[in-house]
Amino acid sequence: MQKTIPELVDSFVLGDQAAFAELMRRFRQKVYSIAFQVLGNHLDADEVVQETFVRIYKKRKELADVKYFSTFLLRVATNYSIDLLRRRKGHQTIAEDSSSLPGSIQLDLSRKVNTPSQEFENRQLMEEITRALELLPPKQKLTAILHDIEGYSKADIAQIFGCPEATVRSNLHIARSKLRKLLKRRLEKGEK
Amino acid sequence: MMTCQEVLSYLDDLIDDELPPTKSTDMQTHIAHCQSCREEYDRTIRLLTLLKQRKVFTPDETYWDEVTPLVIAKTVEAVQDDVTVQPQVQDFREKRTALIRAVVAAAASLAILFSALVIGSQQSQQLSERDFSSPVFATADLRELLGPRDSGIFTRNDQLQLARGMLLIGSPGVLGRFSGMQELITWTVTE
pLDDT per residue over A34-72, tens digit each? Predict the structure, then answer.
């Protein structure tokens, strides 16, 4: 029978390597996905994945006092992603297009699109939205990614960031407003 | 009826389904009849749809087969670092704690000594006004307790000031009961 997350965490705290490996297997994709969304490239996402789980291992004693392992894990992952993003600022950070991604990583742009022209327009819009996301301050960017892409609630995000829910609402509102303005300009340009 | 400004300020909450039912209904009624708000609503929905389409990232198993052993190897290194660093850190902490305790104890002793000297030299007048005829002070002659000559550190005058200071800070209970207090106050060293 599959162990629950709390059971795995309890075993891990006591030094069970197999429990750590299982926790990594269950959460690695989530960490990778968020890191890729934030940093825009595979190498940085890979670094975040490795560093996050090593840090979790080093902090295993603290896990005994932690209520939700996923929140703790994502806090470590998002903090490291933000650090890496700030270090990379000033260096070129163009998000990869789908052709440069390894293995089976692909952007699923074809879902819910009916016509080739719509698909083309959506690709272009996606590139512009991606560029606009890159320009957002790290916390606003992460808030938009965690809420609008990864589907976390504002309460979850507040726990991950260790901030009030009102701050999350504010960051999300600002991020969406900026992206909406961009979309409006782009669509108006397209119509002309 | 809601204004356009109100609708725009609550638009995110409407889309996230976080509004009370009556407010949600009012907003939807406004949007149905206001072109600019409807366009803003539609743009937000399109934005969120596009963002959600970014979600699908799936590194294949070969990637994870390579990364997992790397992470495990790094955790082993991390444990080894803890083992070699820990005794050094512990030793340093113990020494630091002992040093801090010694410094605090020395500082406290100096502070008490200084206070006693200062109070004794400045407050002799107060002492002279006290009534030392009380039996509380009648069991021993403090002058006999003071050294017959200057000690290596304190002169006899210093010793007198110390004794006065201790009395003023309420230490008759500590010193015990003494006679000769009045003489002590007016006693000056003539040697």
Answer: 999 899 888 999 999 999 999 999 998 888 888 899 999
Contact assignment for B64 to A28 by CB distance below 8 Å? yes
CB contact under 8 A, A129 and B62: no
Residue B3, token pair as written in the block: 């204004």
What single letter denotes the amino acid at residue A183?
A: L
- The whole model's pTM is what? 0.64
Q: Say how many CA atoms lie within 13 Å of A89 toward its Cβ.
A: 11
- The architecture of the domain spanning A1-99 is Orthogonal Bundle (1.10)
Domain boundaries, chain A: 1-99, 111-192
**Whether the Cβ atoms of residue A158 and residue A130 lie closer than 8 Å to each other:** no
**B55 closest CB neighbour out of A49, A149, A173:** A149
| CB contact B17 to A (< 8 Å) | no
ipTM, interface predicted TM-score of the complex:
0.79
Nearest to A49 among B43, B50, B67 (CB): B67
Establish if B44 touches chain A: CB-CB under 8 angstroms. yes
Helix residue ranges per DSSP H, B16-149:
21-33, 35-52, 61-122, 124-128, 142-145
Residues B180/B186/B189/B191 CA torsion (nearest 10 deg):
-80
Given an 8 Å threshold on Cβ–Cβ distance, is B43 in contact with A180?
yes
Rounded to a whole number, what is the distance in Å from the CA of A90 to chain B's nearest CA? 24
- Confirm if A138 and A116 have CB atoms less than 8 A apart: no
CA distance A192 to A145: 31
CATH code at A111-192: 1.10.10.10
Length of chain B: 191
* Beta bridge partners of residue B141, listed in sequence order: B179
Give yes or no for a contact between A175 and A136, defined as CB atoms under 8 angstroms apart. Answer: yes
Average pLDDT for consecutive 10-residue bins of chain B (191 residues)? 90 93 94 94 91 75 90 80 62 78 85 80 58 45 52 61 61 47 50 40
Cβ within 8 Å, pair B71-A187: no
